[in-house]
Each structure stands twice: as structure tokens, then as C-alpha cells.
Design brief:
By secondary structure, this protein is an all-alpha fold. It has two domains: 96 residues, Paired amphipathic helix 2 (pah2 repeat) (Up-down Bundle); 77 residues, Up-down Bundle (Paired amphipathic helix 2 (pah2 repeat)), CATH 1.20.1160. The longest helix is centred in the N-terminal third of the chain and has 42 residues. It is elongated and about 70 Å long. The N terminus is likely disordered.
């Protein structure tokens, strides 16, 4: 009879341990989620509109009003250039849905190839060497971290590409936030 009692006690003890582990796991998940939200808020302190869009997206996701794939793609767009945040979004995803660094790198490589193809196209079309050099100078200045001048860059390049509407349209895909402020 004592053995049954031991089995029951052992089972209850095992159950309590599992419950404690589950609780600790949930607390850790909440801490991770809060830390991620704080990191996102800090990263976008100068772009509160983008941060608010992310919070709205997160609410839609939480209430299951958006498909996971759509949410992941939107997160990648919103957090473009912030790979730490893109990977950090995994906090809200199941293991099967996680965004891998490999996926991010592949997308980045694809974007680089697209940009290089665009630059080659501009070089081919702008046979005036001075206009092409000016284009490159503007792009180098922008790449050096002067992203605050995005609207100015957009406008200058648009003037340089005057008469090449298809190049202007392709160029706007690299500046989606600026295009609306023309």
C-alpha cells in the first residue's frame, strides 16, 4: 500500500515540477516579448508612425485577424535594415514559423542584386558620363548614412533620370517611404 502512495506522491511532484516549468517558461516568454517591444520602440523612436503600424500588426496577429505569412512579410518590410528586430520577432512565433538569419541574408542578397542591376541599367541609359557620375555621388553620400536626406536624394535622382520614366519608377521601389512625399 505504501508503494501506491509513493507513486501518487511521485506523480503529484512531477506534475508540480512540470507546472512550475511551464510557468517559468511563460514568464520568460513575457519578459522576452516586453524586451523586444522596448527594443522596437527604441529603434523607431524617431519614426513613431512605423512603430504604431507594428503595434497594430501585432494586435491583428494576436487576435488572429492576419495570416502568419502576411504578418512575417509585413514585419520584414517594417523592420527592413533592422535584422536584429526581424529575428527578434521570433519571440511571437512558433518554432515552425521562425524567421531564420539565412532567409534574411538571402533576401538581402536578392535586394543587392536588384540594386546592382538597376545601377547597371542607369549607366547604360545615361550615356552622359557627368550625369551618371552625379548619380553615383548622390547614392554614395546616401549610403554613407545620410538617410535623413532621403527626400533630397530622391528628388535629385528623379531630375537626373528625367526622360527615363521607367528608371524613375524602378528607383521609387528603393525609396518606398519617400515616394509618397514627392
Amino acid at each position: 500500500m505504501k508503494r501506491n502512495s509513493d507513486k501518487t506522491t511521485g506523480s503529484a511532484s512531477s506534475s508540480r515540477t512540470t507546472s512550475l516549468e511551464d510557468l517559468q517558461s511563460k514568464v520568460q516568454a513575457n519578459d522576452d516579448a516586453l524586451a523586444f517591444l522596448k527594443a522596437a520602440e527604441t529603434a523607431f523612436q524617431d519614426d513613431t508612425e512605423k512603430y504604431c503600424m507594428f503595434l497594430d500588426l501585432l494586435l491583428q496577429f494576436h487576435h488572429k485577424r492576419s495570416q502568419v505569412d502576411e504578418v512575417i512579410e509585413t514585419v520584414k518590410e517594417l523592420f527592413q535594415g533592422h535584422n536584429d528586430l526581424i529575428c527578434g520577432f521570433n519571440t511571437f512565433l512558433s518554432k515552425e514559423q521562425e524567421i531564420s538569419q539565412v532567409t534574411i541574408d538571402e533576401e538581402k542578397d536578392s535586394e543587392i542584386h536588384r540594386a546592382m542591376a538597376f545601377i547597371d541599367n542607369v549607366k547604360e541609359r545615361l550615356q552622359n558620363e557627368e550625369r551618371y557620375r552625379t548619380f553615383l555621388d548622390i547614392m554614395v553620400e546616401f549610403q554613407r548614412g545620410n538617410e535623413e536626406i532621403a527626400l533630397q536624394v530622391f528628388n535629385e535622382v528623379t531630375v537626373l533620370l528625367n526622360g527615363h520614366q521607367d528608371l524613375i519608377e524602378e528607383f521609387t521601389t528603393f525609396f518606398p517611404d519617400v515616394h509618397g512625399h514627392e
